[in-house]
Amino acid sequence: MNRTANSEPICIVEHDCVSTLCLFLDFDGVTHPELGCKADEFCSLPLIEDVLRGCPHVEVVISSSWRTVFSLEQLRGFFSADIAQRVVGVTPSGKTTSDAWLPSSSVVYEREFECESWMRQNRPWGTPWLAIDDRPHWFRPDCTDLLLTSSKVGFCQSDQDTLREMIRQRT
Fold this sequence. Notes:
Radius of gyration: 16 Å
CATH class: Alpha Beta
CATH topology: Rossmann fold
Oligomer: single chain
Low-confidence stretches: 1-19, 101-105
Order of helices and strands: EEEHEHHEHEEH
């Protein structure tokens, strides 16, 4: 990895990408159906990982509520070894105080706020990002950085082409 004069890393990949794209990933309703049984856990994750293998410039940030129960290392354990190393962090909770938080204010589009907070703290301004989530009300209605899944099904084969295209448009 190369660095700029001020030591910021630059991701260089085959298709001349200058910055890394961050993918914010929810679990329930995305990597498996929301109300699935234990045997269904992460049944859709291989479909997401398949897309990510073709996009080596994409890093994963966990935005799922599972981030409050499991450590980053434990969360990486749900992924295949080659993708686990690209899981770079978890979003902060919108329910905790931060520089962007004001007393007596509630975060209307909580998940989008958490993604943007992580980006402000961890990536240069303008770095592209996407989120895969099953809850539209956690994002602005006009949020073009959201790939919405059905909570009853999770990420499915037809979502793979959509994700590839969304990544392509941002890199």
